[in-house]
Specification:
The protein has 11 helices and 14 strands. With about 450 residues, the chain is an alpha+beta fold.
Length: about 450
């Protein structure tokens, strides 16, 4: 029996994957019976938290999304969750917050972290940074830094961005985010996988298709599915397993990236790797209007050891083609290699290159650089979608630096628009993780 199929046999309408005995193994009928008996007593009797409350007794999974063993086949949206933004103050309690207000929930975040971490946006007051940040995205990684790595570490990773709500509106600032890394033991990783499977089953709509705002949460009028996700985050993103925070901070049309590892309860700034000179920070200095789709110009400081700077200036292109086609194709191979989790891990790439790769590729492809048939290109797992869903404003926009979350900018009428911002690497990693879990 497929491992997740065994877990799902126990769920009923209120049971939780974390109610399974810790020594549960697929095919152990005795343990299955014992766990099923616990499940019928309900969370109040068993003492286990009700993390995956039912989202409707008649919710189901389409046949195409079910494995032979009866368990749901994970799709990218099941392992990488992009949350919808609240429209106003009244919707805040349905979301997760880095610094929750009364009646709100969120992961563990050190209260003194803002004194150590760079300001998320140095152009505004600190109250509009970490204290205003919503958890905009969640990703599960069963094997960090790479699915091929041994040994590796299972993780939950969260993205937090400033989201400003009022009685009747919501707004955001320029791109800025904190990424929080929570390490999972093998037992806890199994529990998380079970809970993610339950979320898929309980969704009232299919979660299949390209990575996007989570379709189940968008359709969750009752709020029960969102409550289950909040429970998952609160249960598994704790003080004892927060191991790293990385920051993409904004100041005066520049973005500065940094990394802090946590040990013995303290955050310590780390030296960044794969740079031409030693540094504890790396910047993307935009040298055009932030969201200009016609000008990719900017400077990465310090420069990466192996970058794609041949594509990061408007004067490198002329009449819709690269001035130096050979240099452009070398850079193109590097770009698709960065986007390919089978070729590189996040430990192999500098921060800025990872965050700019997709937007640089989209701009270059529009200006005569070939990206088809390259040796470094990602080969999508069978049955897993890798289409990149972006609005036109985010196709070749070197002011969009969020790999998985939300981007805000002003349209031609001066009105703020807020749109999903997703990198091709995030899409590819999500497809690879979904496939990996289905094959185990």
């Amino acid at each position: 029996m497929h491992r997740l199929a065994g877990i799902l046999l126990l769920l009923g309408s209120v049971a939780c994957a974390r109610e399974l005995p810790l020594n549960f193994e697929p095919g152990d009928a005795g343990l299955l019976d014992a766990a099923a008996a616990d499940a019928t007593r309900g969370p109040s009797d068993s003492g286990a938290p009700d993390v995956v409350a039912a989202a409707g007794a008649d919710a189901g999974v389409p046949d195409a999304a079910v494995l032979d063993g009866g368990a749901p086949r994970f799709a990218p949206n099941d392992v990488s969750i992009l949350f919808p933004l609240p429209a106003r103050d009244a919707e805040r309690a349905r979301r997760l917050w880095l610094v929750p207000r009364a009646g709100e929930e969120g992961p563990y975040f050190p209260v003194d972290a803002p004194d150590t971490l760079p300001d998320l946006n140095a152009d505004v007051g600190r109250a509009l940074g970490y204290p205003a940040s919503m958890i905009t995205a969640l990703r599960y990684d069963p094997c960090f830094p790479s699915l091929r790595a041994q040994p590796c570490q299972a993780q939950l990773r969260l993205v937090a961005q400033p989201v400003l709500t009022s009685a009747d509106s919501v707004s955001m600032l320029d791109d800025a985010a904190a990424h929080l890394f929570y390490a999972l033991s093998s037992t806890e990783a199994r529990a998380v996988e079970g809970e993610l499977a339950v979320l898929k089953v309980r969704s009232t709509v299919s979660t299949e298709g390209p990575l996007s705002v989570h379709p189940g949460i968008l359709a969750d009028a009752s709020g029960q599915l969102e409550a289950a996700v909040r429970g998952l985050v609160v249960a598994h993103c704790r003080e004892d397993n927060l191991v790293r925070i990385t920051v993409n901070s904004f100041a005066m049309d520049h973005w500065i990236f940094s990394r802090f590892d946590r040990a013995a309860g303290r955050l310590e700034r780390q030296a960044l790797t794969h740079l031409v000179q030693a540094s504890e920070a790396q910047a993307w200095r935009r040298e055009a209007f932030i969201n200009d789709l016609q000008d990719p110009s900017g400077t990465i400081e310090p420069a990466p050891e192996l970058g794609f700077t041949a594509l990061l200036r408007a004067d490198r292109f002329q009449n819709g083609a690269p001035v130096d086609p050979i240099a452009a194709q070398v850079a193109a191979e590097r770009l698709v290699g960065i986007e390919n989790p089978d070729r590189s891990s996040t430990d192999d790439v500098d921060c800025v290159s990872c965050h700019l790769a997709t937007q640089t590729r989209l701009y270059a492809a529009r200006n005569g650089v070939r990206f088809t048939g390259l040796a470094q290109s990602f080969q999508a797992p069978a049955g897993q979608p890798t289409e990149l869903l972006l609005v036109p404003e985010l196709r070749g926009n070197l002011g969009a630096t969020i790999n998985f979350g939300w981007h805000s900018q002003h349209d031609g009428l001066g009105l703020q628009i807020r749109v999903p911002s997703i990198s091709q690497r995030t899409v590819n990693e999500s497809a690879a993780v979904a496939d990996y879990l289905g094959r185990r």
